[in-house]
Amino acid sequence: MKVQNARRWAPTGPRAWLFAALSLLLASAVRGSLHPVLGPASPGFAFCIAAALIEYFFGLAPALTVMTVGLVIADYLFVPPYGDLTYFDRSDVTLLVTYPLITIVVIVLIERLRRAQYRSELVASVAQCRYEILLRSDNERLLARRHADETHRLLRELTHRRDQLVFIRAVNPTPLANDPAAVPAIAPEVVPGTRPATRSLGNGLQAGDRFDAVHPADIERVLTVLTPGAHRVRLLTAAGDYRLTDALCERFTTPAGDFFILRLEA
C-alpha cells in the first residue's frame, strides 16, 4: 500500500521551533560547562545530539536549522581562536566536514525510521477501519439471516400447527406491526381459498383456532406473564368441562417485531 502522507508525520506549528531554540540554548550550556575539560575537542557533539532529538520529535526542518545554527555557535565559541569567525584553519575545516556529515547521516536515518513508523501506524489504522466495516457488515448479515430464519419458523408454526394455535401476541412491534392487520400480513393465506390462521383481537393479539377452547383465566394468566416455556392451561372438552392440558409458549424475533405464540402440546 502506497501511503502519501507518511512524510507528514512531524507536528507543525511554533512549538517545534520553540523547542529547537531551547535545544540550542541547552546544547550551548552543556558544551560550555564541559569546555574547561574538553577544550577545543569535539566542539559540535552537543549540537549533533540536539539536532537528532529535534529530528525525532519535530521533523526535518527544525533539525536542519538546529544543525546549521549549532555549527556557527560551535565554530564561534569552541574552536580556537574563540569568539572569532574571520580566522580559518584546520580545526575549522575539520568541524565543517565532520560535524555536518555525521549529523546529516543521523538525521536522515531518524527521518526514514519515523516515516516508516508513521506509515505503519496509518496502515494499521486503515486496516482497523476496514476490519470494523467488515465486522459490522458480517454482523448485519448474520442478524438478517437470523431474522429470516425466525420469520420462516414463525410461518411454519402458523401453517403446520394452526389447529393447535391458541394465540399470537406482538411485543415491541415495528410501526408496521402496530397495525392490527400486521400480524396476519406476516402469515397470509398459505393456500388460496382457506381461512386465515388467526383473527385479530386488537392490541397486537391474534386469536388462533383453539383460543375459544382455552379457559379465559388461563389465557389472561399467560398473557400477563408472557414468558417462553411450558404452561398448563384448562381446555374445554366435548363434554363441556375443562381438563388440564400442556401448552408451549415460544418467542419469535422477526424484522416486524417480537411475537409470542401459545400452542397446545396435544
UniProtKB/TrEMBL annotation:
Q: Which InterPro entries match?
A: KdpD_sf, KdpD_TM
Q: Which Pfam families match?
A: DUF4118
Looking at the UniProt entry, the stretches that span the membrane are: 63-81, 93-110
Q: Does the keyword Lipoprotein apply?
A: no
Sensor protein KdpD transmembrane domain: residues covered: 17-119
Indicate the secretion signal residues.
Answer: none
Entry membrane topology: Multi-pass membrane protein
* Entry keyword set: ATP-binding, Kinase, Membrane, Nucleotide-binding, Phosphoprotein, Transferase, Transmembrane, Transmembrane helix, Two-component regulatory system
Location(s) in or outside the cell: Membrane
What superkingdom heads the lineage?
A: Bacteria
Q: What is this protein called?
A: DUF4118 domain-containing protein
Q: Which organism is it from?
A: Robbsia betulipollinis
Its taxonomic path starts at: Bacteria, Pseudomonadati, Pseudomonadota, Betaproteobacteria, Burkholderiales
